[in-house]
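1st attempt posting a full record on here, be nice pls
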Amino acid sequence: MNAFSIFRRGMRGGPASAHGDKLRRGRTEVDPKADTLQGMKIWTNNAPAVHANADECFALCLILPESSETVLHLKQIDPPPDTTEAESFTIDPEDAFNANIGIEVDKFPDIGLLPHKNCAAVLDFLKQRYLLDLIYTTADPLLIAINPFKDLKNTTPEWLQLYRDAPDAEILAPHVFRLARTVLERLSAFMASQTIIVSGESGAGKTEATKQIMSYFAAGKRGEVSHQRIQNAVIAANPVLEAFGNAKTVRNNNSSRFGRFMQLQLGEKGGIEYGSIRNFLLEKVRVTSQEQHERSYHIFYQLVKGADDAKRRQLHLLNLEDYTYLSKNGGCYDCPGIDDVKDFKEMNKSLRSIGLNLDDVESLWSIIAGVLLLGNVHLESRETDGQPNAAALTPDGEATLQKCCALLFVDEEAVKKEILYKVKTIGDQQIESPNSLSDALMNRDSLAKAVYEKLFDWVVRRVNATIEPPQGFGIFMGMLDIFGFEMFENNSLEQLLINITNEQLQKNFIQIVFARETKLYYEEGIGNVKITWTDNENVIKALCGKSSSVLAILEDKSLAPGGTDEAIVTSMNQALKSSDVWKPGQKNPRICFCICHTIADIQYDATGFIEKNKDLLKPELCSIVQASSNNVAKELFEGVVMQKGKIAKGQLIASQFMRSLDALLTLISSTESHFIRCLKPNETKNPHDWSNGKVLAQLFSLSILEALQLKNLSFSYRRPYADFLKQFEQLDLEVTRKSGNAKEKTKQLLTRANVPQAKWALGNTMVFMKPDAVRELTQKMRLIVVAWEPLIRVLEACHSRALKMRAIRDSVQWVVRIQSQIRKARVIME
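the predicted structure (as tokens):
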């Protein structure tokens, strides 16, 4: 039985007990034989307060005198016991966790510096820092960022300048700016591509963290930016992509409903020279329907609320509550913290900044209005050609379709025909027959979703046309901003693909941070170091293995004649019943199934899986848009080849998604990765609210507690000997510039620099150092540079003076020659 199954079995026992033996991994044990046991304070997950409220997870308790080696007698002190709880209680020593008593949390920016790093101690430590608005903490190699749900005024230009210009950023508090500077310095020092992966669940603050890092990269040193126009386009792309791809959900007012990977080429003096954006997995279904208390994409509300009277008439705009696509499930038209009217004005400026001309912008707004109005093209059932439930337009539907087609720049009659009719080929004959009402509605909604998705892709292409480097990327800075694990009341195919993405990213993280670390130590021969970690290989195999996996079964049933959603679940139950990450659905086992994900058990409803997986636009409708006379409209499906007939293997939504994901992970694996783990402290979205159970689950699911094991290994710096000697060449020129073995020279340099032996180790091909040893050497280098700076300035001044004198001498020579020629001319003239 592995840690995953223990984790799942304990879910009914509360957030702390849910993690079983994972609670004890890496713990600092309480020694029941210790002489100082009496009066000691410890954490336990078996206290009365935890039994009364499972979300407490742990309670701080005092060990009483009657305790023994086998039984601890405790008195609960935090939270204070109420009058109904016993004065004392007993626990097994196995349920005790050491506490960090008397520490000042603001003096410990790195969790690895804590005396005790068990899950209870770390949870309390992060809570105390959060309550002091210290939302950034390091857990090497991670940066932890907790969503404060308020503006802390700590990302202003003044803060950015502080982190950018500080002689040594390591002495400053943890911050996204500090990470951005570190990554930028590594890119420059080692000439190797870097990637920052920002992850966390929805509402944890990933999008904000990404924007802050972008602002740091965009800030040229002392205002020097060589490609201002391109940089402006890169920065302007962010609000545009948010408007098209972000929406209000029940958990997040500005939730990214797509993933994006950005490549940036940064200038020597700072600033962004070029860039590129990859977008994937836009949640198309949100265009036509939303869950209760949720909104569609921000761009719709910006247009309807922000357009002036003239534009409202031009685009046939209605009130928000009159749009069918926006008013399902009660409708939600406002969003706290978002000003749609103001954002509309800014959006028009941003669209110009990314490279669109006025005609493009007008066409874009028209298409958005057309997509929105498609939901109001009402249809009904009529008896037509002997078919009792044939689809037909209502009288108001006819008028609305006319307006829609004008806004979308497509032929009305052609669209009407393809929505209402289908053509079957029998032998050499093509027979046209009416669609059923459900099929016609599906055609209408598929057109709306496909046009919106392609418009989003078109915007990204236009951004890239403005910002991409003409010769492609060499060394680049990568940034991945992607949705976190999602677990809603109703989870469908969209959530399944999102969660598969996060499982793959978790696997990537494990391989980078743990597996590679262990392998490297072994290969370099620097000690028998063993790291224990929890992998998610079983989850990956069950979700997207080549055979007998969720996606494999979904593809087979989607391609099979007469395949149904219930048949998918039936096949899954048969193929995966022996897997420890699979469970039958609790709501309705015939149509629901449950996957034991890294973050939690998540139940999916397979209703609509096949339809969503086949969600391809009718080829004839695609051709109609391609034939548009409007430049923007006809470019939407440019290069898209729509095949009539059967869907081929690989055309399905899930198949396309996996290809994109595999390509993304391959690109990320070719870079040096850095990680920001964003935590969501509560579900209330209120500042200083804290849920122990929610945060504890994230500490496990994001591998934060496991990553702390790397701190015990100490050697976070590792570089080939040649690179090390080049980096610290100026530290000891006598050693670094002499001939000889690079490993031996490295040893001499470290010894002569008085770096304690315990802070470094020499492997077979590279040197390993603790972080404080690197800081010590870097500081010594800076002192050397500062000491030599006056002489360097004198030498530069002398060199500059010499160049000026040479220029003067050359000028004098030319003057003498000119004077000579003038005298000759005068003699000739006389």
